[in-house]
Specification:
This protein has helices at residues 16-31, 55-71, 85-91, 104-114, 158-162, 170-182, 218-226, 247-251, 268-274, 283-293, 312-325, 352-375, and strands at 7-12, 35-37, 45-50, 75-79, 97-98, 140-144, 146-147, 166-167, 187-191, 206-209, 212-215, 231-234, 258-260, 298-305, 329-334, 381-390, 395-399, 411-413, 426-434, 439-443. It is an alpha/beta fold. Helix 1 crosses helix 4 and helix 11 (312-325) packs parallel to helix 12. The structure holds iron/sulfur cluster. Iron/sulfur cluster binds at residues 124-125, 149, 151-153, 156, 158-159, 193-194, 277.
Length: 446
């Protein structure tokens, strides 16, 4: 773990509903890079999720707050007893903040205020975009299925920080997913450093969820997640052959026809220097095969330009590959050294001005592809999820199956009454217009 990782202790009291809230808070904090610790000593602050249902529970909650204050000193209170903030403050004036039940956004906000999330964002490897540090709205949630990574990409230090892949057993992942759905989540964003490798370390061990056997393997996990009746979106998938089996699930509508694959480059020599997983795979053919199984597939990826030794011809190879691959959504970074990464020892560093110039050319290229692909959607209808309302402009911001929150584009619903739509609800829209990254739509009466 990085030395400066902020550490949070957690005390969870009360009924199963409170537990769902605790899970939600913990999932959010863990996803943002907080370390969760099991004792008072090692924690930078402690969150106490209280119960206030009966007097005995209230007394127990006040006692737990007192203990946390004594042992640690920095305490945030949430949960049912939070509705009696005055009582809490009277008994324990030193608590940092008090929030009520099912106010997970507020409690995570309080944690941010008193213990800021890790500020260093590594665009190559961090699972949540920097904007993701803002609170995840209640209707979608990140679901982390494993920690660590078995690869040793030369620009990355994640394996030395977090170790080799450790998958969470499928039953545990499913229990968390189910709790998130019960707490109102409509879209699960599956994340890990290497989603395709899920379960390899456990030899795809059989686990149990609600008494049913479920293998700790991506295919079975996707089938189980698909049975929850919410949107399921896969991030950080590498194009291994085992992913082929997931495509039919997408074609059947069990999980979203969306894959986020961090390709990083297309030149075989650069991919080898990067020590990328699946660098020898024929990815163009694989993408073609996937699209023939699931024509609605949206592909997102990120790339690094200006990697040490990248020649103009190799950069051009990347642009040509992009023309062939026709990815829908693309992000790009100029290469920069990360302390401790083996790529730092590679010769032929690329001058900053060249990196910048390649970045601009890459983005122009990607923008044109994005524009053309979005233009093809005009006139089509989609089921979308409402993310936000702009009452002043009278519009709703939504996303379709092809748009992950924070990183992809928006669908702006402009029809009369759009500002009356409900955040977190699904609606059907007809696309009326497209620009480089976003779509515009009218809601369709149901
Ligand atoms: S796949 Fe490569 S870039 Fe991703 S975490 Fe593993 S080593 Fe790092």
């Amino acid at each position: 773990m990085p030395q400066n990782q902020p550490k949070v202790g957690f005390v969870s009291l009360g009924c199963p509903k409170a537990l769902v809230d605790s899970e939600r808070i913990l999932t959010q904090l863990r996803t943002e890079g907080y370390e969760l610790v099991g004792n008072y000593d090692g924690a930078d602050l402690v969150v106490v999720n209280t119960c206030g249902f009966i007097d005995r529970a209230k007394a127990e909650s006040l006692e737990a707050i007192g203990e946390a204050l004594k042992e640690n000193g920095r305490v945030i209170v949430t949960g049912c007893m939070g509705v009696h903030a005055d009582e809490i403050r009277q008994a324990h004036p030193r608590v940092l903040a008090v929030t009520g039940p099912q106010q997970y956004e507020q409690v995570v906000g309080a944690v941010h205020q008193f213990l800021p999330p890790p500020t260093h964002h590594n665009p190559y490897t961090d699972l949540v975009p920097p904007q993701g540090i803002k609170l995840t709205p209640r209707h979608y949630a990140y679901l982390k299925i494993s920690e660590g990574c078995n690869h040793r990409c030369s620009f990355c230090i994640i394996p030395s920080l977090r170790g080799d892949l450790i998958s969470r057993p499928a039953g545990e992942v499913m229990a968390e997913a189910e709790r998130l759905v019960q707490s109102g989540v409509k879209e699960l964003l599956v994340i890990s450093q290497d989603t395709s490798a899920y379960g390899v370390d456990l030899r795809y061990r059989l686990d149990f969820w609600n008494g049913q056997p479920v293998k700790t393997r991506l295919l079975e996990l996707c089938e189980a997640l698909g049975s929850l009746g919410v949107w399921v979106r896969l991030h950080y998938v590498y194009p291994y052959p085992n992913v082929d089996a997931i495509l039919p699930l997408m074609a059947q509508g069990l999980i979203l026809p969306y894959l986020d694959i961090p390709f990083q480059h297309a030149s075989p020599r650069i991919l080898q220097l990067m020590k990328r997983p699946a660098h020898a795979e024929n990815t163009l053919q694989r993408l073609k095969d996937w699209r023939s199984i699931c024509p609605d597939l949206t592909l997102r990826s990120t790339f690094i330009v200006g990697f040490p030794g990248e020649t103009e011809a190799e950069f051009q190879e990347l642009l040509d590959w992009m023309d062939e691959a026709q990815l829908d959504r693309v992000g790009c970074f100029t290469y920069s050294a990360v302390d401790g990464a083996s790529a730092n020892a590679l010769p032929d560093a690329i001058p900053e001005a060249v990196k910048e110039e390649r970045y601009q050319r890459f983005m122009e290229h990607a923008q044109k592809i994005s524009r053309d692909k979005l233009a093809e959607k005009v006139g089509k209808t989609f089921k979308v999820i409402v993310d936000d309302i702009d009452a002043e402009a009278g519009i709703a911001m939504a996303r379709g199956p092809g748009d992950a929150p924070e990183i992809d584009g928006n669908i702006f619903i402009e029809s009369p009454g759009a500002d009356q739509l409900v955040v977190g609800n699904f609606v059907h829209v007809s696309i009326t217009e497209a620009d480089d990254y976003d779509l515009y739509a009218q809601a369709i009466a149901e």
